[in-house]
Design brief:
alpha/beta; UDP N-Acetylglucosamine Acyltransferase, domain 1; five-stranded parallel sheet; binds coenzyme A
């Protein structure tokens, strides 16, 4: 694509996806415009194995725009990076057509994989501000990744993913209930307290019964001892009476 045609295409994309733009010439102020045009040049150099020069362009662009695109990444048509600052796109990332990224997005690796370490992003995907997509899986086309999400596994097409770690909350525009939400066995702290108090009460009753029965035994032994004492006393008295008479 010629430069003029490319600029016109960028103007169309940015006007289409950023309501904040007022005039077409503002496109030259967009870090996305600068970063992508320079990435295209760096990528061509990378493919010709001129790695140092390719990385030099990429790093210089990162300093100027806050968008770091590794020249080895493969990017389709119509990528738009809104605001741009803090965007990182790793070496083995593949991005389809008409993808939108917001500030703070990382398309990175987990550090555990070799070879293809970065994600593949399908056509028309939107990745919101601050989202991290880490690993060599695919984000299916037309999917949306919510702001601040951390996506660590494959996402089927037409899905909305939110949260940390990312979970699918919508597919084909239909809300999906949380799979880990057991709506029958919900925890009940009051019932738990009552159950443990009941157990404790039962144990205390048994202990009291045991102590009472022991106490009764001691009491009856004492009674018997007392009776024996009285008997002994009587015997002693009789003995003394006998000797005196
Ligand atoms: C994910 C997003 C794109 C909305 O997609 P959507 O398909 O329209 O989804 P919905 O708005 O219907 O939300 C679905 C559910 O996810 C929740 N949700 C949406 N975005 C979320 C987020 N970023 N984090 C956590 N939960 C989120 C919603 O509350 C809703 O939950 P509920 O079902 O319990 O009500 C949007 O919420 C988002 O994150 N936009 C950020 C765009 C951005 O980066 N802008 C920066 C401009 S500078």
């Amino acid at each position: 694509m010629g430069l003029i045609k490319y600029i016109k295409e960028e103007m169309r994309i940015i006007r289409e996806r950023d309501p904040a733009i007022r005039t077409s010439f503002e496109v030259f102020l967009y870090p996305s415009f600068k970063a992508i045009i320079r990435y295209r040049l760096a990528h061509r150099l990378y493919k010709r194995k001129r790695y140092f020069l390719a990385r030099w362009i990429s790093q210089r662009t990162a300093r100027k725009t806050g968008i770091e695109i590794h020249p080895g990444a493969t990017i389709g048509k119509g990528l738009f990076i809104d605001h741009g600052i803090g965007v990182v796109i790793g070496e083995t990332t593949i991005i389809g057509d008409n993808v939108t990224l917001y500030q703070g997005v990382t398309l990175g690796g987990t550090g555990k994989e070799k070879g293809k370490r970065h994600p593949t992003i399908g056509n028309n995907v939107m990745i919101s501000a601050g989202a991290k997509v880490l690993g060599s899986f695919t984000i299916g086309e037309n999917s949306k990744i919510g702001a601040g999400s951390v996506v660590l596994s494959e996402v089927p097409p037409n899905s909305t993913v939110v949260g940390v770690p990312g979970r699918i909350v919508k597919r084909d525009n239909v809300k999906i209930p949380r799979e880990d939400m057991d709506q029958v066995h919900l925890p009940d702290p009051y019932l738990n307290d009552v159950t443990s108090l009941k157990k404790e009460n039962e144990f205390l009753k048994k202990e009291l019964k045991r102590v009472c029965s022991k106490f009764e035994m001691i009491e009856s032994t004492c009674d018997k001892l007392e009776e024996l004492d009285i008997l002994l006393e009587k015997l002693k008295n009789q003995e003394t009476n006998k000797t005196s008479s």
